Amino acid sequence: MKLLLVGANGTIGSAVYKELSHDVEIITASRSNSDVEVDITSPASISRMFEQVGQVDAVASAAGAAHFGFVDEMTPEQNLIAVNSKLLGQIHLILLGLKYIRDKGSITLTTGILMDDPIEKAASAAMANGGIRAFVQSAAIELPRGIRINHVSPSMLEDSIEKYGPLFQGFEPVSSKRVGLAFRKSILGAQTGQSYYVY
Ligand SMILES: NC(=O)c1ccc[n+]([C@@H]2O[C@H](COP(=O)([O-])OP(=O)(O)OC[C@H]3O[C@@H](n4cnc5c(N)ncnc54)[C@H](OP(=O)(O)O)[C@@H]3O)[C@@H](O)[C@H]2O)c1
């Protein structure tokens, strides 16, 4: 079982790596310090990554940026950060990567709690999360060759309290173990079209 893990060095990516690295061959990908270089905001870069890596059984993404700011101050350009990175970046992994995924393989994307439980300054991130959820549910009914697709929607991780804690007042942080298990279920299980909420 070969897994291409995009965003492997990040907080969520590291949780996925730790959970699966004993069972699965993992190829790490990100803009720096990974086995393969990729910038998901560039379709050309995504295509180059897949050409380099070749056939895999699973693709998982834990990458995607968004601008955090008040709606009445947000510029269209700032909003496009989430569109180009978290939303289209992850969706382009499907569109450009599908032919590299073996029969009965899987795709797992990352969304997040902000689409269900709003906080200030997070509308752009929530937009991207909701778009991914809708795309995943629709794509699941038509992906070819038994390929499955799911997304994992974590709340704030315990490992991210220092970074995001002040924004997430009253949210119960979740363990990296639980987030890793949701990815395990998606990658090594049999379900498709699922939303795994780690709230
Ligand atoms: N942490 C949380 O508590 C939490 C909770 C719910 C949802 N989320 C969501 O989950 C995603 C990952 O969060 P995180 O906290 O794990 O982020 P993180 O620690 O900043 O890690 C992001 C990872 O993605 C890579 N990356 C970033 N931009 C990229 C790009 N354009 N192309 C390719 N790789 C890229 C980074 O490596 P390089 O910089 O080297 O490219 C890094 O490996 C985000 O969308 C975030 O909103 C996070």
Describe the model.
This is Short chain dehydrogenase. Belongs to the short-chain dehydrogenases/reductases (SDR) family. With 199 residues, the protein is α/β, with parallel strands linked by helices. It has a single domain, classed as 3-Layer(aba) Sandwich (Rossmann fold), CATH 3.40.50. The protein has six helices and seven strands. Strands 3-2-1-4-5-6-7 form a seven-stranded parallel sheet, with helices on both faces. The longest helix has 22 residues. The chain is globular and about 45 Å long. The mean pLDDT is 98. Bound molecules: NADP nicotinamide-adenine-dinucleotide phosphate (NAP). NADP nicotinamide-adenine-dinucleotide phosphate binds next to helix 1 and helix 3.
Short structural description:
Belongs to the short-chain dehydrogenases/reductases (SDR) family. The protein is an alpha/beta fold and 199 residues long. It has helices at residues 11-20, 43-53, 76-97, 123-140, 161-164, 176-188; strands at residues 2-6, 25-30, 36-37, 56-61, 101-110, 148-154, 195-198.
Strand order of the largest sheet: 3-2-1-4-5-6-7
Q: What is the radius of gyration?
A: 16 Å
Second CATH tier, the architecture: 3-Layer(aba) Sandwich
Helix content, binned percent: 25-40%
Distance between the termini: 29 Å
Family: Belongs to the short-chain dehydrogenases/reductases (SDR) family.
GO molecular function, one term: oxidoreductase activity
Organism: Bacillus swezeyi
InterPro entries: NAD(P)-bd_dom_sf (IPR036291), SDR_DHRS6-like (IPR051122), SDR_fam (IPR002347)
